[in-house]
Amino acid sequence: MRLFLMLILAIVGLMPVSGARAGELVVIELFTSQGCSSCPPADELLGELAAREDVIALSLHVNYWDYIGWADTFATEEFTQRQHDYGRAAGSTVIYTPQMIIGGVDHVIGYRPMNVAELIMDHSRQPYPVEISVTLEGDEYIVQAQTDMVSPRPNMMVQLISYSPLEEVDIHRGENAGHVIIYHNVVTSWQVIGEWNGAGVFQTRVRPEGDGNVAMIIQTSGFGAILGAVRLD
Hints:
Layout: H1 2-11, E1 26-32, H2 40-50, E2 55-61, H3 77-89, E3 99-102, E4 106-109, H4 113-124, E5 130-137, E6 140-147, E7 156-170, E8 180-196, E9 202-206, E10 213-220, E11 226-231
């Protein structure tokens, strides 16, 4: 499976490159569950994407499969709600796993590497209109953002994400019982640290609530397009 995924990414010219600029970081959110038998291939694909310098790949575990017999150890109602909010923004009431959302706007089944790779290519060609700079002072990040977008500018959410790079789970019940599954970039905290209308310079200080590495994204309010992203690890 690993070799197949790497070949798919290579075929479409998307092998990892070093030195990616902030505007080239494509944000991928995988909604997954330890209780979903269709999810392990998507979890593996996310692991391949997490190794790339031009992608911020994030794994958000949802809780609506817990009733099958295994309570996902990373799932939160907050992440389940985030997936519902994306669905409503797209005009749908249906949610499923595994689902990848790319750039905040493109929804795709999470175990289809060719579709995912093509969408990454499309998004990587579109420079972000928001520039983010972040410096670390003690245990706080000092965040600044600015844009040259002209009015009318969209309202935006400034978000700080903490994530664990690697987790291994021995699953004892449910659809994946008997399997040890490796998860990558498991989100431990998703903080909305401010709202911004694009005027002037946005500035704030923030302390991450979760453990692990940190990324920041600025997204159109209402769960729309991601307009800026940086990885802080």
